[in-house]
Amino acid sequence: MTTAAAAVYDPQIPGGASAVAASARQVTKAYGAGETRVTALDSVDVDIQRGRFTAIMGPSGSGKSTLMHCLAGLDTVSEGRIWIGDTEITGLKDKQLTKLRRDKIGFIFQAFNLLPTLNALENITLPMDIAGRKPDAAWLDQVVQTVGLADRLKHRPTQLSGGQQQRVAVARALAARPEIIFGDEPTGNLDSRSGSEVLTFLRRSVDELGQTIVMVTHDPVAAGYADRVLFLADGVIVDEMHAPTADSVLERMRRFDGKRTS
């Protein structure tokens, strides 16, 4: 990507990470070798700004989920370097990477991944309980209020709607105060009303709690909640949009599809 953002920030410069939550430099991800080699990401440069909501879009096979997985340390890269804050994660050993993901990264996926035997509050605090860490009571209360779960904390997942279960998943990601949260189609299994609720809470977590969110989505409406949209095609960031709306994203995707079919 030939943008000013990619040129301005270098994680190796002392103090340069203050405004950047995650960064990739010349990241390539390939599968296979020789004639069967498939390049999912092709020399990608990108910075994820701290305290902002970034959406990643693109057609199936564009590399959007691969980019998110590499940025989050869920997948390795074939070439290039990735930082979370000022910590380079490429080359970290498994134990170090597991600790970094636990301490600095939150995840929200399509599947809610809630334990049915635990109530909402217990599901929210589970990762910290496993890590032997005590939640910050004031922060936990603020998170619960932000996602609107104060009257549902004693309910088990089967007693919650799909939207409420995903809000529990959002609160779980927020509760440990990670540096960055990654969401892979977090509203993909929800109806439009529940999806809108979850996206509103994600937006509020950025505006009111200063959270950093990166969300992969195929939905222009969901992307309209973000501050910035990155568009991928064939493993390359081909465009970006700031202050998007659902209509502007949809129009961009239509033009993008037109170029692909022409």
TrEMBL record:
<dbReference type="GO" id="GO:0022857">
    <property type="term" value="F:transmembrane transporter activity"/>
</dbReference>
<dbReference type="InterPro" id="IPR003593">
    <property type="entry name" value="AAA+_ATPase"/>
</dbReference>
<dbReference type="InterPro" id="IPR027417">
    <property type="entry name" value="P-loop_NTPase"/>
</dbReference>
<dbReference type="GO" id="GO:0016887">
    <property type="term" value="F:ATP hydrolysis activity"/>
</dbReference>
<protein>
    <submittedName>
        <fullName>ABC transporter ATP-binding protein</fullName>
    </submittedName>
</protein>
<dbReference type="GO" id="GO:0005524">
    <property type="term" value="F:ATP binding"/>
</dbReference>
<dbReference type="GO" id="GO:0005886">
    <property type="term" value="C:plasma membrane"/>
</dbReference>
<keyword id="KW-0547">Nucleotide-binding</keyword>
<keyword id="KW-0813">Transport</keyword>
<dbReference type="InterPro" id="IPR015854">
    <property type="entry name" value="ABC_transpr_LolD-like"/>
</dbReference>
<dbReference type="GO" id="GO:0098796">
    <property type="term" value="C:membrane protein complex"/>
</dbReference>
<dbReference type="InterPro" id="IPR017911">
    <property type="entry name" value="MacB-like_ATP-bd"/>
</dbReference>
<dbReference type="InterPro" id="IPR017871">
    <property type="entry name" value="ABC_transporter-like_CS"/>
</dbReference>
<keyword id="KW-0067">ATP-binding</keyword>
<dbReference type="InterPro" id="IPR003439">
    <property type="entry name" value="ABC_transporter-like_ATP-bd"/>
</dbReference>
<dbReference type="Pfam" id="PF00005">
    <property type="entry name" value="ABC_tran"/>
</dbReference>
<feature type="domain" description="ABC transporter">
    <location>
        <begin position="22"/>
        <end position="259"/>
    </location>
</feature>
